[in-house]
């Protein structure tokens, strides 16, 4: 005898199963893509393959963080912006002698705080969470190889792979979700003050 869910209750059961399993599937995909990219980066493949795999890992991490946060928040309509979170930059080779300005963790964190302060009470407050979901996984992925760049302080040593995977798959989506909640509450309190 087979179980077949029909009607509204079947739709609700299938939707809740989807909401439960999709973040798990996304987490597994994110881990697999990042481990594959690390394997390619550290095992002598051609520069083209290394750049493409590294960009794919950056994009997957950012898209996963944004999609995981949006799937559990009222900002679901912005979930498609995950595809714009990272860009393909063929010139961004993996063996740079020095990192570009936007790879300095203190700069990107300060820029994100400034963005939050400027946009938190506007209809564009969600952009703060989008920016965070883009730069934080990128910083974490780079910190796995080089450490966090904390200018004007000292750089950290490279972070361990388990900690790196924890930050990508659990800490970043939770932080993005909480940031979306704070922005939403700021927008609601601003609306109530106006009324």
TrEMBL record:
As for subcellular location, the record says: Membrane
Its main localization is membrane
Tell me where on the tree of life, at the top rank, the source sits: Eukaryota
Keywords in alphabetical order, please: Membrane, Transmembrane, Transmembrane helix
Q: How does it sit in the membrane?
A: Multi-pass membrane protein
Q: Which GO terms describe its cellular component?
A: membrane
Q: Does the keyword Transmembrane helix apply?
A: yes
Question: Which residue spans traverse the membrane?
Answer: 20-37, 101-119, 163-183
Give the protein name, as stated in the record: Transmembrane protein 267
